[in-house]
Recover the amino acids of this structure.
């Protein structure tokens, strides 16, 4: 199976979610199923069916997280000598040349991308355009709203 890049923070976040599901959520669901069984006839017991459905969802998420972590290539950007270039895990400060707006993004894997938190996927149009560039470079990004130009103001490895 193909290795998927993941930042150290992203891997830790997945590990925390996995731990929470296994140690807190799963035992609560098992308890809810046991209590619902105690009520008798399972065919017409909505609490039992809801708990079983929740258990199915949680077990699926646990398997998904375990697979993601097993196939992750965890990259610590602080250990990379990128010589000022934008690489996976780097934090990039950009200036939109049209609007003058400044934005800061961290280049991350697809599983941890969250635009609201400034985390963009390495495979997104802007992520692909930034990789390999360095401060003061101007990059063109093809977006659904047309081509945008950004100047790279700074590249940090944090």
């Amino acid at each position: 199976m193909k290795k998927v890049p993941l930042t150290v923070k992203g891997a830790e976040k997945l590990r925390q979610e996995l731990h929470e599901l296994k140690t807190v959520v799963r035992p609560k669901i098992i308890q809810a199923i046991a209590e619902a069984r105690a009520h008798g006839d399972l065919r017409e017991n909505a609490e039992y069916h809801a708990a079983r459905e929740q258990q199915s969802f949680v077990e699926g998420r646990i398997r998904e997280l375990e697979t993601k972590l097993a196939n992750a290539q965890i990259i610590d950007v602080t250990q990379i000598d990128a010589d000022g270039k934008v690489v996976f895990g780097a934090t990039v400060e950009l200036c939109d040349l049209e609007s003058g707006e400044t934005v800061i993004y961290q280049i991350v894997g697809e599983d941890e991308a969250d635009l609201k938190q400034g985390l963009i996927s390495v495979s997104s149009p802007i992520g692909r355009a930034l990789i390999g560039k360095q401060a003061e470079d101007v990059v063109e990004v093809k977006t659904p709203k047309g081509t945008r130009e950004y100047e790279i103001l700074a590249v940090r490895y944090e």
User: Anything to note?
Assistant: Residues 9 and 139 are 27 Å apart (CA to CA). The longest helix spans residues 8-38. Strands lie at 4-7, 72-75, 91-96, 102-108, 119-121, 138-143, 146-156. The helical segments are 8-38, 46-70, 125-130.
